[in-house]
## 1
Amino acid sequence: MSVSIGLQQTNSTTALQRFLSERNLRPGRSRKTVTESGSSLPRSLGQFIQETAVASADIARQMSRYFSLPLLDLTAVDLKRCPLEIIDTDLLQQHQCLPLWQQGKTLYLAVADACCPAAFTDIEFHTNCKLSLLVVEYDKLQRCLASLRRQDAGLQFDADELSAPSSRPGPDSQDQDAQIRDKPLVRFLNRILDDAVQAGVSDIHFEPYEGFYRIRYRQDGLLHEVVRPPPNLAAGIASRLKVMARMNIAERR
């Protein structure tokens, strides 16, 4: 199956809008008030899902039928067996795709939006492979990409290291600042913030619960879990975030 799907002469935004219109997936089903200007069609699939009540699973089914492409459930895919080395992580994030397996010169690629011929041409150029597309659900693809980004950014952690008591800083202010920056929890939170900036997320959710703690990013209006640090670090994370925001760490609400 070739990547040639009849959209080579159309830019990705126009192709997506045409797909949504022809499949009767119109902004009239939006949660938001849509103007009558005719410019209300979304510029990206993520924006459309964010602004409408249409489930990503429904979009994937429609996309699969419209382009006559196979539909795949990403929960059945083991990321460890995917040929991730063939495409740079930044390129995967940029074009929102995932290589599933390679057979000779054919690369099987998971996409949520099949309306991106320029992106597919770019990937073909970098991999020197012919693409065979499989449609997947947008939210599941985002979770896989977030997992890869987390690994690439080094957001893995050692629970014992994060929970270890900190050594008392020396009297010199520069030594004290250096020791604070070198604390495992501080380094971990700095990596979280750096990764969020690189990923272009709009919000970071630090969510303490009774039995677990999770950190989620909001990207394209959707929340994606990034990592689950040990729940006993909730107070330490809150204190560090307050220090970074120059808030009163003694104040609790």
Note: Residues 16 and 220 are 16 Å apart (CA to CA).
## 2
Amino acid sequence: MSEIITPALVSLDEPLGTDKRAVIDALAARVAATGRASDGAALAADVWKREQTDETGLPGGIAIPHAKSPAVREATLAFARLTPGVDFGAPDGPADLVFLIAAPDTAAEEHLAVLSRLHARRLHRRTARRDLTRRRGRPRAGRRQRRADRGGRCEIGRAH
């Protein structure tokens, strides 16, 4: 299995749109551009359908839109740091850290594994959030996730 997140799946302070639909569309297109999905529009539609069922904004400026989709070839995590943030329905306001999780529709456990590896509740830790919102250079998310995938500790979460 390849890396779940690569530099090509990271968007830092790029204009992805002013609403969650535009951000989802942009991140889904990025997943498709890497060859991890056969159709970015189909993936975006599946993520949007899931988002309509239950908004994915979390306290602390975080959103985790996600879906299983027949368009997805392998489990993937795309990340965007947004300036300004976009409303994903969190009670405390817009999200500036967005993690789009895409998994094949035949791999329910793979989808859950990505969610587990991300450990959304750990994103609230001050050090993880600080590293992801740094405005200089690339955030350490990809490196930390790769370390976690190999069984090491990372500030975003721990691999199981």
Note: Residues 127 and 155 are 7 Å apart (CA to CA).
## 3
Amino acid sequence: MITVGDMDDNVPSFRAAEVALHFPEGSSTTGDAIFQARARDRDGRYRRPLHYTLSSSTASQEHFQLDANSGLLSVVRALDYETASVHQLSIHAIELGAPQPNHASLLVSVHVIDQNDHSPVFEKSTYTVAVEESVAVGSVLLTVKVPYFYN
């Protein structure tokens, strides 16, 4: 009898090479999970546990945390559209215990949805208008401008 066995010869893989998430600014509290990375390893009984790591720019890294065992991505600092409208993250799944660990990468784009979180700012703090008695009802008495500024 000949038994054919499996060996650790498959690289872990994600279902897609990249994923886009859309998340409203300011809506998170520390620790809110927004995504779970799940890589597959087709190595049958020789399958090794996977370890997840996160890489990104320093600015984006401050806003996110990845659980190394579960692949759960969480927001750890509130997202602000005016500071960064998109965060580019890379999640890596690495086989543990392999002499030459196989790995896979997933690009995650977190698009921050802008919320109206800025109060209007008028050009002047006080407006004075003189109105004559004979002015018709519905007449325009004053036009003010409220420019929108991004901080």
Note: The first helix runs from residue 58 to 61.
